[in-house]
Amino acid sequence: MTESTLCLQPSGQWAIVAPGREPVNIVAGEVFLLEVLGERKMKQVRMMQRDGQWRAMLSSSGHIERRVELRDGLRAGFFDQRERYARELK
Fold it and tell me: Which parts of 1-90 are beta strand (E)?
């Protein structure tokens, strides 16, 4: 995984940012990897939009979801591991 971090955009939308690349917004329903606070492993998190607010939900065993607190600078990446960054910054 390209080393990247979570970043809150001026628009209020969350994005994943890699060094030297443009940010890529995380869209509703998308599953991405996040270093969840208080846990050592990267976890799969799904982005949701409810009542005009973005929420990140972590699915646990038994299909119980819990909300994840998002903060700028957390280690993050895309679950599908494809190169998702639009283009290199110039």
Answer: 5-8, 14-17, 24-25, 31-35, 42-50, 53-59, 65-68, 76-78
